Amino acid sequence: MNSPIPILSGAPVPPPSDVQTRPIIAFANVSKVYPARNESAQVVALDGIDLQVPEGAIVGVIGKSGAGKSTLIRLINGLERPSSGHVLVNSTDVTALDERGLRQARRSIGMIFQHFNLLSSRTAFENIALPLEIAGFPTSEIAGVVEPLLAMVGLSDKRDRYPAELSGGQKQRVGIARALATKPRVLLSDEATSALDPETTDQILSLLKTINAELKLTIVFITHEMSVVKTLADRVAVLDGGRIVEQGTTFEIFANPRHETTRRFVGSVAGGHVPGWLLAKLRSERLAGDSAVLHVAFVGRGADQPVLSRLARDLGVDVNILHGQVETIAGHPFGSLFISVSAEPEILRAIIAELKAGQNSVEHLGYVS
Amino acid sequence: MSPEILRLIAWSTLDTLVMVGLSGLFGTLLGLPLGIFLATSRANELFPAPAANRILGLIVNATRSTPFIILVVAIVPLTRLIAGTSIGTRAAVVPLTIAAIPFIARVIEGAIREVDQGLVEAARAFGASPLQIVQKVLLPEAMPAVTLALTLTVVSLLGYSAMVGAVGGGGLGDLGIRYGYQRFMPEVMATVVLVLIALVQGVQTLGEAIARRLDKRSRNS
Fold first, then answer.
1. Residue A79, SS3?
2. Whether A77 and B216 lie within 8 Å, measured CB to CB
3. What residues does each domain of chain A span?
4. Could you state, in order of their start, the residue ranges of all structural domains in chain B?
5. Which CATH code is given to the segment(s) B3-214?
6. What is the pLDDT of residue A21?
7. Nearest CA to B208 among B196, B219, B198, B200?
8. ipTM score
9. A58-63 and A186-190: which strand pairing?
């Protein structure tokens, strides 16, 4: 992106977060280096990660592919071991556990996967029963656990269906039920909606929110889609090149993205990108009769104000909306508008000042005829 | 064909079935664990033992590359030790089993390696031990492929069993050589070939039917 959204001057106070509660997961200066092998040089997957997940929260880790997300989430249940640092889950240092101890710890950490990873040879019921069999549950008790889970994910009628007979969304529901079978306190989600269509994605995300609310289950998910973060997360950590470049509540991150990577992600859902047709017409020099193009990001309270109509009334200028989007993030309105105004330079300065007065961020992109 | 010849063909068919059945059974009993080991013992796998994996792999390859007829002759002392004799149907089971073990081990290794690694990761994430992963994930998921692999093995063993006739083993191959070839009875030879074709067809059809039943990956199962 050529013109990143500028840093907001007066970011709104973030909504109260629940960081006061004891973190259920804590990363302390965790690094993961894959040693050099044959021709390939060593790879630093994670570098000095510090991250705390409050109990009951939904925390999203977003990053591009290769940013280290997969490694990060797998450190929580010990599928990966760190090169240095410690990961505490439920006050247990999982990095200090041996294989036997890890197997025990993993039973209180559920996990769901991008490609569902259901056994093709087992029915929905039998797939959900698998973690219970592994944990040594007596056969007589298994149905008593599995049936309510099937009902919770809305698949009681698909009980005896094999995965090949289920849709992607249904498979992920089975995956979720399976992950909850051993009553874990933490659910890890590895790109759980990346293989699903948008509608199914929304259904799975709302199921996860319901589970979080009803079971008080802490959820840590990784994704490369900011739209998933926007819908699901309470808190976000942005991962880039193996480092957490930014973290905070979802609203903070959307309202005031500081790092370039974060801005790019936020721009991808918040309409912050200059549309291509506009970019093609933009020029930096003002010619006679040109209109100035402004990008205005409305955040929090600023988005409630009738800014544009006031502009027209108070300064007597015509405002033309070129492109824009207004939506709700973490319960707050959040808007991004591209507008053009035909005005002389001094009037333009007044317009920008007026717009900035309401906690909005304004950027002068150039001119169009 | 005279009734005696027909009875001979019937007995030879039974001999062949016994030889193939027993060597298939023993071959599976020994080849299956070997195949599982080969599929799970490289570095960073469930039971990492790369050195043992490499040595067993070499032995398997060596056995598989030895022509069967040479193997039969070469292991005569072993055959005598195990079966008490080196001729006849009982003796033929020994070289057939020895040939079947590495074959079965490799095809089962292949079938297990086909199982999606994501399933192994999921099972680990639920706290499964390596042994549980083999029992509850790898074997059940590989079952359709394993069935097809065993079918292939039985078909190959039918071919091999015809060869042991040449060194005094019983069965259809032996009958074909002694009557069909050496006594110039082309109708016996033709019948032997037809019976073998029918057996192969039957085994293949049965094996595929079982594999299809076990395979839940397609919607129309």
1. coil
2. no
3. 23-269, 276-368
4. 3-214
5. 1.10.3720.10
6. 63
7. B200
8. 0.87
9. unpaired
Nearest to A119 by CA among B55, B86, B153, B216: B216
Q: Are A219 and A59 in contact (CB under 8 A)?
A: yes
Which pLDDT score is estimated for B62?
94
CATH annotation of A23-269: 3.40.50.300
A198-233 residue pLDDT tens: 999 999 999 999 999 999 999 999 999 988 998 999
Whether B126 and A104 lie within 8 Å, measured CB to CB = no
Cβ contacts (< 8 Å) between A77 and chain B: which residues? 125
User: For residue A327, what pLDDT band results from cuts at 50, 70 and 90?
Assistant: confident
A276-368, which class in CATH?
Answer: alpha beta
Measure CB to CB from residue B118 to each of A77, A117, A162 and give the nearest one: A117
Q: Pick from A100, A116, A120 the residue to mutate for testing the B interface (most B CBs within 10 Å).
A: A120
By C-alpha distance, the chain A residue nearest B211 is: A121
Closest-CA residue to B128 (of A136, A24, A321, A272):
A136
Q: Chain A: nearest CA to B201, how far in angstroms?
A: 27
User: Measured between beta carbons, which residues in chain A are less than 8 angstroms from residue B214?
Assistant: 121
pTM, whole model, 2 decimals? 0.82
Q: What pLDDT, on a 0 to 100 scale, did the predictor assign at position A301?
A: 63
pLDDT, position A298: 76
Taking only the tens place, the pLDDT of each residue in B47-73 is 999 999 999 999 999 999 999 989 988
Q: Which two tokens stand for residue B17?
A: 């079935």
